[in-house]
């Protein structure tokens, strides 16, 4: 019978899991191998998704979802007490056909099975042994559980020595590396099986101690005795018979945990200072110093500066000066690439325009955390998911914030932006909110209610220019809040834009006389405001009269 006709799942090898008992499983990461350096907690990018080299399990076990291919049940060795019954009800995986079965479910008569003493629940099933199929992993690890082992065939040059498998060599190298790193001699030894006859002398090794010592990283001593052959040979077992049983390999006692390594982010070294002079090809320096070149570069635009950066390396470093990039415009781009973000951070602009750009929240947060001197930020037309990064980014020098026509923004989300950070104490100066230093705020087209307007008056008291145009909820009560005696904007407001607010009526126009510093008032496209009432307000004005270049647009010369 071929292996393809044995049932579903034949030939599919199951991925094993950690035993959580061996020395490698219970230790911590070393922090020095290339897998540890890739981990995020050690400052790496976290791309490999691999465990530490010193934490590779030496005795992986079958997953808890593994079941018998014949009866469809899991291992039931815990339900019986006898060793023979435990072995018959335990799951065994064949290294040739990869089938997982109970030894008691096989009915092969006197067929022999070959058990791997190094890996739990691993053998060569009696069916594959009867068919004469060879194992995929060969070497001196496996034991043929037979009372009379067959000696290896000797050649004319000498006794035959089994060739070590690549898996065994990898395991031995791993053990030796563990001992060299920890500098602790391994003195643990595994116990022998119940059916082995130990030697009485202290220098000779028993039959079953060699695999245990191979697990501990020591090679067996070479000797001329029958025990040497038994160590490299294999022993046979008959399912359901009273022969020797599989000894489960138990790992040694876990060592004490080493002290935790100090974790820190590895950053690149600081940049060297820029040269003060321009070296020429002849070996001398140009007579003009760096300060003079920067004055020339200040008269160039962004395109010309990019061309100058391609002339030489010195000009390229000089053209990154933040005085040459007071404003950067990245508006109306579908996406921002990492080189573009790095270029913005290197230039450190004071004003950044990202309007109608597909910037993500992660990118915006990365930018704001690295632009500490940013004074003007334009985010009009972006999604609220990206703009919500303002709630967790420091904005100490921000003076202008443009949030016009933000998509999918609600009044509750806008309140979260206006409220102070949750970790701010009431006695601190930052208790006013994140926008305490903002002088100009543009909120056109947002669903701003009177509740949000109260928070705005409380946590942004230094506003001199406010844009509330096309806000559907702004009406006469909103104007009363802006011009109330307790409002801080009553004395600071200079420019006010209320165009397109259809809830405003003629009754709110006399309230604007409470703002003595008001220089510009835009009431265009307000359908319920009459031109005659606006003309009367322009004639009376706050301290002086206004002029009306357009209908419902009131201006005053400073």
UniProtKB/TrEMBL annotation:
PROSITE patterns: ZF_CXXC (PS51058), ZF_PHD_1 (PS01359), ZF_PHD_2 (PS50016). Residues 186-205 have a biased composition (Low complexity). Residues 12-58 form the CXXC-type domain. Residues 65-131 form the PHD-type domain. GO terms for biological process: proteasome-mediated ubiquitin-dependent protein catabolic process. It comes from the Eukaryota. InterPro entries: F-box_dom, JHDM1_Histone_Demethylase, Leu-rich_rpt_Cys-con_subtyp, LRR_dom_sf, Zinc_finger_PHD-type_CS, Znf_CXXC, Znf_FYVE_PHD, Znf_PHD. GO terms for molecular function: DNA binding; zinc ion binding. Residues 135-150 have a biased composition (Basic residues). Keywords: DNA-binding, Leucine-rich repeat, Metal-binding, Repeat, Ubl conjugation, Ubl conjugation pathway, Zinc, Zinc-finger. Residues 132-169, 183-284 are annotated as: Disordered. Substrate-recognition component of the SCF (SKP1-CUL1-F-box protein)-type E3 ubiquitin ligase complex that plays a role in different processes including cell migration, cell proliferation or cytoskeletal reorganization. Mediates RHOA ubiquitination and degradation in a ERK2-dependent manner. Induces RAC1 and RAC3 degradation by the proteasome system and thereby regulates TGFB1-induced E-cadherin down-regulation and cell migration. Also mediates ubiquitination and degradation of IL-33-induced receptor IL1RL1 and subsequently blocks IL-33-mediated apoptosis. Directly interacts with SKP1 and CUL1. Interacts with RNF20. This is F-box/LRR-repeat protein 19. It comes from Rattus norvegicus. The lineage of its organism: Eukaryota, Metazoa, Chordata, Craniata, Vertebrata.
């Amino acid at each position: 019978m071929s292996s393809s006709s044995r049932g579903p799942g034949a030939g599919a090898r199951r991925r094993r899991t950690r035993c959580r008992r061996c020395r490698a499983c219970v230790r911590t990461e070393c922090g020095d191998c290339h897998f540890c350096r890739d981990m995020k907690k050690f400052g790496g990018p976290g791309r490999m998704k691999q465990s530490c080299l010193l934490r590779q399990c030496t005795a992986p076990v079958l997953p808890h979802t593994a079941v018998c291919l014949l009866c469809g049940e899991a291992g039931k060795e815990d339900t019986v007490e006898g060793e023979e019954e435990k072995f018959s009800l335990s799951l065994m995986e064949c290294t040739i056909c990869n089938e997982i079965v109970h030894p008691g479910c096989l009915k092969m008569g006197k067929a022999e099975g070959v058990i791997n003493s190094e890996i739990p629940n691993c053998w060569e099933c009696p069916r594959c042994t009867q068919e004469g199929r060879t194992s995929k992993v060969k070497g001196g690890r496996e034991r043929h559980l037979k009372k009379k082992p067959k000696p290896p065939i000797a050649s004319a040059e000498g006794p035959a020595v089994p060739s070590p498998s690549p898996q065994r060599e990898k395991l031995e190298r791993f053990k030796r590396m563990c001992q060299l790193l920890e500098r602790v001699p391994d003195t643990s030894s595994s116990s022998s099986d119940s059916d082995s006859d130990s030697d009485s002398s202290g220098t000779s090794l028993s039959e079953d101690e060699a695999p245990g010592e191979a697990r501990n990283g020591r090679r067996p001593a070479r000797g001329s005795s029958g025990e040497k052959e038994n160590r490299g040979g294999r022993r046979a077992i008959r399912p359901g018979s009273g022969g020797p049983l599989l000894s489960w390999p138990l790992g040694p006692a876990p060592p004490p945990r080493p002290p935790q390594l100090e974790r820190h982010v590895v950053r690149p070294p600081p940049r060297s200072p820029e040269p003060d002079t321009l070296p020429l090809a002849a070996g001398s320096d140009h007579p003009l110093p760096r300060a003079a070149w920067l004055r020339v570069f200040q008269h160039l635009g962004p395109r010309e500066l990019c061309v100058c950066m391609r002339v030489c390396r010195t000009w390229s470093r000089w053209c990154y000066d933040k005085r040459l990039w007071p404003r950067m415009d990245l508006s109306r781009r579908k996406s921002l690439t990492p080189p573009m973000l790095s270029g913005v951070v290197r230039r450190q602009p004071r004003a950044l325009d990202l309007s109608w750009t597909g910037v993500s929240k992660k990118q915006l947060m990365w930018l704001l955390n690295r632009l500490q001197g940013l004074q003007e930020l334009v985010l009009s037309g972006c999604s609220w998911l990206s703009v919500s990064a303002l709630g967790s980014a420091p904005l100490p020098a921000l003076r202008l914030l443009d949030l016009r026509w933000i998509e999918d923004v609600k009044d509750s989300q806008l309140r979260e932006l206006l409220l102070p950070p949750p970790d701010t104490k009431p006695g601190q100066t930052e208790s006013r909110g994140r926008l305490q230093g903002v002088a100009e705020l543009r909120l056109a087209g947002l669903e701003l209610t009177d509740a949000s307007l109260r928070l705005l008056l409380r946590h942004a008291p230094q506003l001199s220019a406010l844009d509330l145009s096309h806000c559907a909820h702004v009406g006469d009560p909103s104007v009363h809040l802006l011009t109330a005696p307790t409002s801080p904007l009553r004395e600071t407001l200079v420019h006010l834009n209320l165009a397109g607010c259809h809830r405003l009526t003629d009754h709110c126009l006399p309230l604007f006389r409470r703002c003595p510093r008001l220089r510009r008032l835009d009431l265009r496209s307000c359908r319920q405001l009459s031109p005659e009432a606006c003309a009367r307000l322009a004639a009376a004005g706050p301290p002086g009269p206004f002029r009306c270049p357009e209908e419902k647009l009131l201006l005053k010369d400073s």
